[in-house]
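[User]
If only I could read backbone structure tokens as easily as an amino acid sequence. I have put the entry right below:
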Amino acid sequence: MSDAKPGVRALPITVIDSQKPVAEEAREHHHDHADEGPRSLGRPAPCVLFVADTAISEADIAREMQFHRAMKPELSRAHAARALVVRELLRREVERLGLGDEVQPIGNEPAEEAHIRVLLEHEVENRVPSDDDCRRYFEQNPERFRSPDRVRVRHILLGAAADDVTGRFNARSEGERLIGELQASPVLFADFAMRFSDCPSKDQGGELGWLERGQTTPEFDRQVFRLREGLAGFPVESRWGYHVVSVDAIAAGEPLEFDQVHERISDYLELQVRQQELQHYLLELQARYEVRGLDAIEAEAA
């Protein structure tokens, strides 16, 4: 592939940052209903976005926006416009190379997705990182390759609905009272769990066992992994109510061996290289088929 023309701005488009195939990502949610969308006095919706001589109307962008949620509509519009530009660039290249006859859809694969898949198979190199590449990345990023931190936890859940202001106040007060008694008599924890906890773990004295990050609700998880070993001096709040918590042991993650993470590193590096190749390819297509109007749309979203 030839280098892009000087002065052509790269489209800031991530095509592969998802769990879906690239071809599906490029065509996702595309609808071919040209007769839909807003109209004014019987006239077609205005067009400010073009790929070569193909106009992408505001109606097209508005339909696409529902699949690109954002904090403000200008950003949603920019994401939608960008997705439509990528799709049109790829469609034009499929047509130029005459790849339609080579397409063999897989299962229920739509024709457009099949065309894009074949195009990318032809034009974008799929490079697998070497063992040396993987080992170099492993040695340069040791902090990324550790077994998970773990904590061994017991708790007493004093349940209260999130919208029950009085109930939550009472639960917190009860938690503070139990903590005060447990600080004087720690051996009473299992007994208090049996008597007061609203969690099924009360039958095991409140035992939750060894926990890793992400195994409980996020708000409980964040707080528990900040605690020191021993009885927490305050009730821990979650969506379920308040928890009297005892951290009985803390096990920091251990460094992993290269062989344990080799496959994970290889997959990650292959994804990164694929991303770079796709971005470069989109830049070449943008140089081949002039894109007009996207800068202005993205400037409004900045």
